[in-house]
Amino acid sequence: MRRDTLSWRIISETLLVLGALAIGLVAGMIIAYLMGAPPLDVMGTMLSSWKLQPDLVAEYTAMLALTAASFALPLHTGLFNIGAEGAFQLGALTALWVGYASGSLWLALLAGMTAGALLVGLAGALRVKLRVNEVLSTIMLNWIVYWLLLYIVITRLQDKYYTTRTVEVPESARLPWISLAGTSIPSTLLVSVGVLVVLWILLRMARWGLLLRFTGANEWSSKTRGVPVGLYRAGSMALAGLLAGLAGALHIVGYSLSIDVTGSAVRNYGFNGIGVALMGRNDPLAIIPAAFLFSTLLVGSNNVEPIYGVPKEAGDLIVGIIVILLAAPEAFRALARYAGSWRGGKG
Amino acid sequence: MSGRHKRGASTGAIVAAIIIIILIIAGAAVYLGRGGGKGTSATTTSPPGVTVTTSKPAATTTKKKIRVLVLFDVGGKGDLSFNDMAVMGAERAAKELGVEVHYQTPQSTDVMESLLTSVSKSHKYDLIIGVGFLWLDAMSKVAPKFPDQKYALIDAAPQKPIKNLAAYVFREQEVASLVGVLAADIAHNIGCGKAGAVAGMDIPPLWRFHEGYLYGIQYYNKQEGTNVTLVWTYTGTFGDPQVGKQTTEQMIAQGVCVFYGLAGLTHLGMFDAVREAAQQGKNVVAIGEDASQEWYDPYHIILSGLKRVDVAVYDAIRDVYYGNFTGGIHSLGLKEGALGISDAKIIKYFAEIAAQEGKLPKGLTPDDVVKIVMQQRKKYIDDTAWHLVDQLKHEIISGKIKFVNPTSHDQYQNIIKELEKGNLQAAVQGS
Questions:
Q1: What is the pLDDT of residue A220?
Q2: Has this prediction a pTM greater than 0.80?
Q3: What is the CATH classification number for the domain harbouring A295?
Q4: Which listed site, A77, A220, B312, B347, has its alpha carbon 20 to 30 Å from A274?
């Protein structure tokens, strides 16, 4: 009986994903056709971008996997964390500053994680203690970080000659790249995948992981059995912030080395992570391939413009359609869980 | 609800995700295997508002077709100014020289290095042009690694010259100083005594505009014995018309009556705020920058400072076409015809582009635009101001006035402080 349900779920989920992907690809090809470009070649270019720019796809995958985990983790307890964007940027900024000042890779990473954890943890504490909607508080925190970043980048960290960006972190605080099959990619990917695997094991095997999922699955039942729901919720938010902060710090020490004065080097990783988390059904292991898919499409859409002369917005549109189709089923489930999180009294 | 099938759901998700990955890799392998992805079916697009309909090679060419890749600033096409002018220059080269032009817009600055490396490795392009100062860092790092690839960088220069990188920079102070003289005259004639500017970000090109604009205003004050002051505002963004509009409304409330737009898309909002204020009976005027922007609202935008990005892009392509490419820094200014104040010819040119796009205000033809602008200029600007402009222009072209290029934020602020005190020499080299 149980085996039956399990295999049925596998088959139905597989069909759902394959169907969504097929519809997305066809929709993408229709858009390409309407833009006057060869549909098959456009999709081919988009999906083979990992061959063209392996370093960028690897970096995107690493970052999006972590920010996706940052969204997924609190959702297991029923909370919506929109703050990965702010935590990523704050983590990047702190890591840059500390890395630049100290020249230490470990201090930079530690500072980035701490900053992220404090930022999103604050939103978690506000939700648990004062029932402040964490969606609103994290969005507001994102904006505070957005302007803080621009202010500090321009007034404190600007490079003397390359005024379009900040100073770079020194050699000693950088994460080396690794050679792989003839190209080299940032080793942030290894760190990111490692963290996600550990997270998956903890969620599945550790006591607190089970309790964490328990609070989200049935809050009332958890409470009556003495699980400190509020603590788990606030804790999951702090951990989520830590993950996004780590992503931001890794991005600085392992890839971009500096932040440009428009801040574009550290933007949108948090928001894109939400899409990745939903595509990956909030499961740390499934998030990794989902992040790879999103990254491939993202980099690919950018390469469609010069080759086929379609506007870059068309590429973005194709990515958007595929991601929405793949994320939609989980988005509905997530909304249901979120609505449930407000039902159970205080906390 | 979820407890019952949770385990199954995530197992299913993993299986499904793995299948997706296998499909992507397999699909891409098949695609690459059959010779796709080499860009064999490349075509050029016609960019917005350019009269070119074909990119056929010119009859004279016998050599192999030159391919150019134009890499935009993060904003991309459609700003009616900086990036669109790059398109204009590239399309002119496509039409006159028969080169093949491709365009690409990066998503953010951190993809630039990877993108540039990837297109350099492909050896598909004879020239790769980075439009805008944001390309500076990536160009400086990538260009030395591909010594056989030619690069051009518009509006920024690397610290040390690179042999295969031609960097085009503008002496923005020159055009801003001319605009400053005219803006001061307008402010004086309207009677508000305050000339304003809505600027983008606090970065070196804007420092140079600030320096030049204030210089022009003080130059006017000195010659005419007036006391026009400058209200300069950084909005912090080049891409947000809403911010531009709010900023302008606040400045109008402070009594500013002339607005110089130095913020890309942001100052489109400035134009809207000026028009609305004018419709409510306020006497306010706007000045555009980079392209001729009078067509947007000819009754209230009566001037534009020109920063001819198209000239730089065209020059870069032409030099490669004729084999005259030289690396290093190319400085462009009034003397090279890359800067200036919009005249009837160029106003009409841009109005025609806008008309083709269907963007011209209703019921106006390009000729109407020119006529209205010229009438408005007569109304707001005295002949003496135009004489002053000619005089200043002559002094700049002859080399008598050479502006200082501030290299640090402190130096920039010192120059502004001195200029505010009326010390014109603070902005001039060798004095």
A1: 80
A2: no
A3: 1.10.3470
A4: A220
